[in-house]
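FW: tagging you since you asked about this chain on Friday. Here's the raw sequence from the shared folder, copied in full. Didn't touch anything.
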Amino acid sequence: MACTQCARLRRYCLEVAQTKRKAYRNDAYWGRPVPGFGDPAARILVLGLAPAAHGANRTGRVFTGDGRGGSGDFLMGGLHRAGLASIPTSQHPGDGLALRGVFVAAAARCAPPGNKPLPHEVENCRVHLAAEVAALPHLRVVVALGKVAWDAWLAFVATSTPLPRPRPVFSHGAVARLAPAGTPGPAGLTLVGCFHPSRQNTHTGRVTPAMYDEVFSVALASRAQTTRTDI
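HL: got it, structure written out here
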């Protein structure tokens, strides 16, 4: 990806790639927008927040390389237990990780300062989300990791389909159906809310492996029940 829409994010990603973290001083940082990763035949889309400065911004693969026990390992552990990932960790692009039936992407494709993309930066990335969704014709379910991802998906759907009233509110385990089953396009997908697997959440016990197991159980059940026509 060679997108340059967000000057602030591009400056930050390149600065991080040049200064590096001491532990990764010998690594060649990716330093560019990070595309999604997974199974082209995926029925489940996992939508995260943004690449980590020394994680995906370094490795070039979403939710990859943010250290042992980081968000990538926590997410892949949940996907592995659900039968959707070949291994329970995500350390580097050559680690043998393969996703089955799931595709993982981020609402913002460039690492933001403080892990907080600005609203217009997420909006700028919508075109990339649209392109990936269009290339995944079998999608049935979207798992939004956190409120930013949840709101980004709602905003994406709203570009083509009116949202229901009241607007679905994010919470862990929330399930929203934005249009009747069989509705073509993104509005026909089931949306499932899930707390983000940040260290702040996982190391404090706000998020547990059992909570992720429940979310992916719901996603798998919704995957089997929901029907739609191709985008």
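FW: Helices lie at 7-19, 56-59, 71-81, 119-124, 126-134, 147-158, 199-202, 209-225.
HL: agreed, and The radius of gyration is 17 Å.
FW: great, closing this out.
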